[in-house]
Design goal:
heterodimer; A: 18 helices; globular; B: 309 residues; mainly alpha; 73% helix; flat
Amino acid sequence: MRSRQRIAVLLATASILLSACAGASTSPSSSSSTPASAAPPPSSAGEPSSAAPVTVDWWHITTGDPGKADFQAIADAYTAAHPNVTIKITVLENEAFKTKLATQIQAGDVPDLFQSWGGGIMAAQVDAGALKDITSDIASWKDTINAGALSIYAYNGKQYGVPWDMGMIGFWYNKDAFTKAGISGPPATWDDFLADVGKLRASGIAPLAIAGKDEWPSMHLWTYLVLRIGGGDNLAQMIQSKNWNTDACTKAGQAVQALNALNPYQDGYKSATYNDEAAAVGNGKAAMELMGQWAPSVQKDQSANKQGLGDKLGWFPFPTVAGGAGAPTDGVGGGNGIAVGKDAPPEAIDFLKFFLSADNANKLNTDNVGLSPVAGTTSTVKDPNLQAVLAGRDQATFMQLYLDQATSPAMGQAINDATVGLFLGSSDPAKVCGAITDAAATN
Amino acid sequence: MTASALRRSHPSRRTAVRSVAVFLVPALALYGLFVLVPVVQAAYYSLFRWNGLQPLTDFVGLRNYQTALGNGVFLTSLGNNVLIVVLSLAIQIPFSLGLAVLLNRRFRGRAIFRLLFFLPYVLSEAITGIVFRLMLQPGSLVDAGLDRVGLGALQQDWLGDSTLVMLTLFVIISWKYFGFHMIILLAGLQGIPRELEEAALIDGADRRGAFRHVTLPLLGPTIRVSIFLSIIGALQLFDMVWVMTGGGPLNASSTMAITMFKAGFKSTQMGYGSALAVILFVLGLVVALAYQRFVLRRDVDGAITVSHG
């Protein structure tokens, strides 16, 4: 008798606890879709009264101003025009963002809009069913955006996000160091480049800065060589077929070996981080680095005087390789975008359209937050070097997303690991191509 | 109350069991939730090919373990961990013991020396790593110092040379931890009554003999604990190496924990990363249990309460 009573009490307690748990786990998602209290008061006139309150969750990683403030201002402008929409912004630091997003995706509670770099990671998110196909939603306005940039956020022919920043990798160089070494202008061919490296070394400066610890900066140099030697279609074919034991891959490795023979890198390059690399250029200890559009600002931050090279900094696209199939206008690039979560309301996509309007794009360009891929907005980028980057991007006949992002993270890591061995002089071209092919087979 | 009295008096025994349960359950629950469950979870994940996003569907059995044990990078990492264990036991602990013996003598400024030697241990691993990384850059403090004293020829790419990098790291790890082992050993030395050594000296032993045959055996339990901590620390090595080299150049300074972290969080191969975690766990467990069973047994005898019910 007593024990039966006890069991009854126990069951009752358990059911209360269970229902409490269930309530707790569902409340965040329901509150994120319609928090009545958080919605702004509907405007008295103009808006149709039928517009139900909607909340759009937006996660971004632009933690510094002016970018953070600009994003907030754009959101505020949108909600002012659409009083039924609340845009809930969560600003996260890069690494925290990646961890938190992965957890949210596993839990099936994906933010409506969030930072994306496209490529392999986005593809994995699509495969996990976390993203929304927005191909038809953006059909009416997608032509206002650079096609190459847009393609980074497409997977299997469907669009899952949009770019708001897109640049291209090229050589950033110290003009004074070039003059001092007796070099009249940027090299147009790989042979000229090698000759200039020799001249720079003879003049007493490290010709090229790379980062052996972080691996990826030198990987871009190797990618460009593969691209220049084999051409864009060939590279796309290598990624698709997962066969990297190709002529272009081997020859790119040999070109790196020819470069290595000139002792081109800065002191301590084997254990250098990307910040060390940027500091070497910013402090005038190295004459060049191959890097994306962010290079000037990082050089500035990492340099001893916090000024960087200023006017002495120049930019040139990757030189052509004699006998190579690639066009001089083929590029390697990437940038930032926004992916759309699986449960995003139509308002989220409408907000993206507003976010990518020419006015907002010009604002981001003016504040140097990004290089907007929106057509007709390049003139608001003032820096002449960034103008050169933009010209390269907009004239690109083929645009390869950074190879370690275009592929799955495991594959990207394998490419970085394999290629850095070449630059550190402890691998050979055939080994690199073989290692990447092996990694591609299992990933 | 003696054990036999406990057995006879039924009600009070029940109270004892109840209070044991009350005190034990919270700790066990936390331990279970944050230690045992994750271990079992990792073991489960390790049987799948999983990128951390999709549902667990791609069951691969023990293939992740096969991959790990046939993987050059993992074996290099294992070798590096073993190297640090061996070097620690061969160099770091004897060095700490020597210092402890010295600082156990009476002399002016003894406390200051004890404090100075212990200080590195107080620093966080990450800060130690960053500071030494800066000092070891080509042309930085270490190289400049060597230059200044006329040893410029000894300058090296301390963290960039794949044959040298583990030795460089070992020196820094030792710098950080010798003070810790010194303090443990010092505490052990202070627990040994001075009279014993004095008696040996009076009986005609020389100082070396007295240390060798009286002090050292009595310090045995402390040394064995120090060795144990050193082994476990070396097997788990991560923070400092991650900050200083990231396992590079070309995995030359990779450790098992670094390989695991890279697989799980850089390559998002969560299944493979979990397999590495399980290997690391089993290895640590086996070493710890074997050490307890065969080396520490005499020391813990009598120290652990054994129920005689």
